[in-house]
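It is worth pausing here to work through a concrete case rather than discussing structure prediction in the abstract. The textbook approach is simple: state the sequence, then state the predicted structure, then interpret. We follow exactly that order.
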Amino acid sequence: MSEDLLYFFYDLIQYLINGIAQGSIYALVALGYTMVYGIIKLINFAHGEFYMIGAFIGFYLISAGHPFGVSLLLAMTGAGLIAVVVERFFYRPIRHAGRIPALITALGTSFFFQYLGQGLIGADPKPFPKVIDKKTYQFGEVFIEKTQVIIIISTFILMALLYWLVNHTKTGKAMRATSYDKNAAELMGIDTNKIISFTFFIGAFMAGAAGVLVGMYYNTVEPMMGLIPGLKAFIAAVLGGIGIIPGAVVGGLVLGVAENLVVGFWVSTYRDAISFFILIIILLVKPAGLLGKNIKEKV
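Step two, the predicted structure:
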């Protein structure tokens, strides 16, 4: 093997690792999109703000001297509780008004949190407190940062817990029943309002974790930080098949890897463009997503 080819493979592995770390974040946020859509067919464009809220809760708790693990758990819980409040007072009253009013409400909620954050905290980025020692592991010419390892491991632990919750608990069975047929679930005695609120909580819980992990990785947080990742996570959810939990994971990882390959082997300024290009292609070729199935409906 020539030296040039060897270094090409080193670069390829490096960008794949970077892409998996980035894609893990997209996947965590995309899970919230896909769970909420699966339950009530709402595209919650305010979901990226729960990611931002979790990041800031973690920022202030760690700055106050609380341990990282405790701060992470409280940030996730805080983001989840705010999502429950948003669902109860913003979305529930217009749940039966149609999809367009719900979509407009979601966009308005997103802007509300963005500018509320700027008004209360300020628009300037805040340096995230140091929580772990910077360490890099080297394997030949491939480098893996300790923070990347933490992000990937944390993401897959949370995803495994979500899989267990949805598929092996009574609450998960109620969530699947509500997703399949809300009216029938109510007739069987399921409190669908509580299930919907719980779904919002779990989605924002995951997004809050992503916010803290990103703050730790990039060493900065700011009130507009949820805008682009929120859009990327929506693309990841559509790419994998919105409403399908494994699809959100697959879509997030594919998107993260694609972005990093573009940065490494093409032009870094096309990083965001490739995400929307992938969205256009998937909508043209397979609108149901990579793991989705086309379903015929009578109208």
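Step three, interpretation. Residues 162 and 202 are 8 Å apart (CA to CA). The chain has a mean pLDDT of 88.
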